[in-house]
Design brief:
Distance between the termini: 28 Å
Radius of gyration: 18 Å
Helix content: 40-55%
CATH class: Alpha Beta
CATH architecture: Alpha-Beta Barrel
Order of helices and strands: EHEHEHHEHEHEHEHEHEHH
Number of helices: 11
Strand content: 15-25%
CATH topology: TIM Barrel
Shape: globular
Bound molecules: glyceraldehyde-3-phosphate, zinc ion
Length: about 280
């Protein structure tokens, strides 16, 4: 059934686990994420980034509607989240399109500009009943997931208090779009952030984080784990393998189906990993 991101994240946090949130681009992504979560018997978040909307010819609704119907029919709770949003228009459309939450991304901005823009986004989101996540980059607008970026706990505490955000994406060593699972997280910094902040913490760029690091991050207080690239890697590898083995293939279902199956297995693995209760 369709549920809210807040319910899944707060539920996971209370249980000492995390909910995985996967970026969806095609209908195959939607089907794979739901199937993988169902196999694992765990809830999941379907998230659509502003970049994905651009790829969908600038239209949010077709993919959002498909995701909402898939969520309603799923055997596990599924929430819809709008990811890395910078446009007011998208923020405005989110609630009507079935999203219960948004991530406003002002991390490219200098601190005070990020704070002001996030605060405006928080007011707009809350006025529409949306739960809102934000991201704190480094001073100078480097972005929170550039290599070497780290979130400062003291600054983060002030940012959360002054902006009113419901969740915060923190920079602790993961980097967006990694294609190897080699990120090393700063667990000591995560502990300090956890102690300094009351809101749930979100890990972005989780495709590059090894399984044991993910487990440690969840134990350290990460309650939402964002994954994008890992699904695209799985899909692309499976399609490439299928087309190499079947150079005369014509029916799109043969290779897209292989891609979907590979994504579902990736989802099942990650959802199981982050949803494990502490022993
Ligand atoms: O917001 C989405 C995530 O941060 C995805 O990052 O593609 O590196 O897994 P990733
Ligand atoms: Zn991200």
């Amino acid at each position: 059934p369709l549920t809210t991101t807040a319910e899944l994240v707060l539920g996971a946090r209370a249980a000492g686990t995390a909910v995985a949130a996967f970026n969806i681009i095609t209908l195959e992504h939607v089907e794979a994420v739901v199937a993988g979560a169902e196999s694992a018997g765990a809830p999941v978040v379907l998230q659509v980034s502003e970049n994905a909307v651009a790829y969908r010819l600038g239209r949010l609704l077709p993919l959002a509607r498909a995701a909402a119907v898939a969520a309603e029919r799923a055997d596990v709770p599924v929430a819809l989240h709008l990811d890395h949003v910078q446009s007011d228009l998208l923020l405005h459309q989110a609630a009507d399109a079935g999203f219960s939450s948004v991530m406003y991304d002002g991390s490219r901005l200098p601190y005070l500009d990020n704070l002001a823009a996030t605060r405006t986004a928080v007011d707009r989101a809350h006025a529409r009943g949306l739960w809102i996540e934000a991201e704190l980059g480094e001073i100078g607008g480097k972005g929170a997931h550039a290599p070497g970026a780290r979130t400062d706990p003291v600054e983060a505490r002030a940012f959360v208090a002054d902006s009113g955000v419901d969740a915060l994406a923190v920079a602790i060593g993961s980097v967006h779009a990694m294609t190897t699972r080699t990120a090393a997280l700063d667990h000591q910094l995560l502990r300090r952030l956890r102690a300094a902040l009351d809101v749930p913490l979100v890990l972005h760029g989780s495709s590059g984080v090894p399984d044991d690091e993910l487990t440690a991050a969840v134990a350290g207080g990460i309650a939402k784990v964002n994954v994008g690239t890992a699904l695209n890697q799985a899909m692309t590898a499976a399609i490439r393998a299928h087309l190499t083995a079947h150079p005369d293939a014509v029916d799109t279902r043969t290779y897209l189906g292989a891609g979907r199956e590979a994504m579902a297995r990736t989802v099942e693995r990650i959802v199981t990993r982050v949803g494990l209760s502490p022993a």
